[in-house]
Amino acid sequence: MSLQDSTVIEPSEPETRRNPFLEALGERVRTLRSRKGMTRRAVAVAADVSERHLANLEYGTGNVSVLVLLQVASALQCSLAELLGDVTTTSPEWLLIRELLGQRSEADLRRARVQLVELFGEGGNALERKNRIALIGLRGAGKTALGQRLADDMGFPFIELSREIEQFAGCQISEIHNLYGANAYRRYERRALEEAIQIYPEVVIATPGGLVSDSANFNLLLSNCTSVWLQADPSDHMGRVAAQGDMRPMAASREAMEDLKRILEGRAAFYSKADMAINTSGRSEDQAFELLRTSVRQHLQRPD
Predict the structure, then answer these.
(1) For the residues 209-238, what does the mean pLDDT come to?
(2) Of 22, 178, 189, 191, which has the fewest beta carbons less than 10 angstroms from its beta carbon?
(3) Three-point CA angle 169, 171, 177, nearest 5°
(4) Distance CA 256, CA 178 (A)
(5) b/e map of 63-95 (b: 16 or more CB within 10 Å)?
(6) Type and span of the H or E element at 148
(7) Which fold has domain 15-89?
């Protein structure tokens, strides 16, 4: 799927009228769109707005009424999020928690998340979590080939979550998106992941590349599986997918490599939350498998 539209829509407002806040807002929209691997056209349809309106927003020339909200937030000495009323403003406890976490480092936030999982019992059985191996990463990283070999080596079942999603839906993944939309796909994805967790105390799971884009589904995976990020250079991702005869999600793009790099950049921070990372670039399949096998077995032998 291309992140660039076939016809580039230039901003309708002159460059001199851009505002730094609107430019930053537009960049966040583009980053989120890249992370989801969606074209501007797809986002415009899902949001029921014109492509030109969305393009203006991404170029930093969106609806200037947002500036009014920023001015009001500044006058009230509160964040824009608080003015708009996101979930962290719905109660005093949320506000207090947000204040405690607001200036923490990424490492501190990770420790807080892990402790919250333990506090609320979301992680399930610790031994089962260790023995459920979930491989994450973009298409072409080797999740299916290496995952099947790892499962055979460990004597575990192997699940390709995309195939499970298709069985639940009764159609191919592309048809799920076309007929029912991204939200329906995420529901099927969660159902398939929940069932795998419930049925298999020992398993190797190859996950769809975009699973990390849904925080609820990714949290479920992190809490119940040992996660492994299979990394690769963008050129290796592209070459391997092409060798499989499948150019998704970059099928119609004239700038496919740039699209892929942007998707990887948008998701890398989430992939990095995995328990371990294995770089498969510059290695044969046998070499990559030996590195994966050794790393997983060492991780499983560590005390909790």
Answers:
(1) 90
(2) 178
(3) 80
(4) 21
(5) eeeeeeeeeebeeeeeeeeebeeeebbeeeeee
(6) helix 143-154
(7) 434 Repressor (Amino-terminal Domain) (1.10.260)
pLDDT 10s digits, 254-269? 577 787 888 888 898 8
149, containing H or E segment: helix 143-154
pTM of the model: 0.75
Is domain 116-301 given the CATH code 3.40.50.170 in the classification? Answer: no
Q: Which two tokens stand for residue 169?
A: 């839906």
Q: What gap in Å lies between CA 23 and CA 188, rounded to an integer? A: 35
Distance in angstroms (rounded) separating the CA atoms of residues 55 and 44: 9
Phi, psi of 6 (to 5 degrees): -60, -30
Residue 158 contacts residue 242 (beta carbons within 8 Å): no
3-state secondary structure at position 15:
helix
User: Hey, where are the domains in the chain?
Assistant: 15-89, 116-301
